[in-house]
Amino acid sequence: MRVIIKLASALLSISLLLFASIASADISLDKIVIHFDSTSPPVNNIAVTNNSDAVIKVEAKVIETLNPGQDSESEIKTRELSVAPKIFELQPHETRLTRVILRKKISDQEKMYRIRFFPDKPTRTTEQESGGMSVKIGVVVGMGVLILANPETPKPNLNFVRKDGKITFSNTGNITAQLQREPFCNKDRSACTPLIGKRIYPGSNWTMDVPNALKGKAFSQTILINNAFRTLNYPP
User: Fold this and answer.
1) 195 in Cβ contact with 184 (< 8 Å)
2) pLDDT higher for 135 or 98?
3) Which of 2, 19, 107, 157 lies at a CB distance of 3.0 to 4.6 Å from 15, suitable for a disulfide?
4) Which of 11-20, 35-44, 122-131, 203-212 has the lowest mean pLDDT?
5) Matching fold, domains 2-149 and 158-234
6) Maximum Cα–Cα distance for the chain, whole Å?
7) How many CB atoms lie within 10 A of CB 214?
8) Superfamily of chain region 158-234
9) Is 61:118 a contact under the CB 8 Å cutoff?
10) What is 2-149's CATH superfamily?
11) What residues are paired with 111 via a beta bridge?
């Protein structure tokens, strides 16, 4: 956050950095998730597009997420994943490829990284009056990509318990399990109920409420784990 106070006009100017994945941002990306597994090349590309009518300077920042989905979740800088170029200019409506390289083999447990792209100019500016002062707020909206790197030997193991109108999941494997956001329908599809999507990371737990329409009933949900779709069958 940068704060500048101009005494002559009592103008307070604030520049804020936000991270979002919205189409109205000045920059957009061609993908939001990248998976690296033990059989794929450790290289991928991200196309970055300038949606504005002005020249934009973009900076890419790489971080690793430790203990994702847990109370102890945190972020650190890392050299295990790199992006090039890290700083570049985009002409109005220009698209440029950036190269993502996984520089370290993942041995025992999946790792999560994020790349965040930030423009150098505010996406939008608002001005408000507060206590006799004019407050100008510039909001810089960044776009991000989630990177999941599988270990050499994936060991999927998602467990669940259904009790008292809830389903509690526990991921004791070493890769992420992703519950798919989808409708569950009866056989003739005359009645459908939406099911929540959720990534359950290794070592984490998550509890969801059973939809009212499915309480006391058996139902199923699709799950994506180790690049394969499977079906979870929930008992009544």
Assistant:
1) yes
2) 98
3) 2
4) 11-20
5) yes
6) 72
7) 15
8) Immunoglobulins (2.60.40.10)
9) yes
10) Immunoglobulins (2.60.40.10)
11) 149
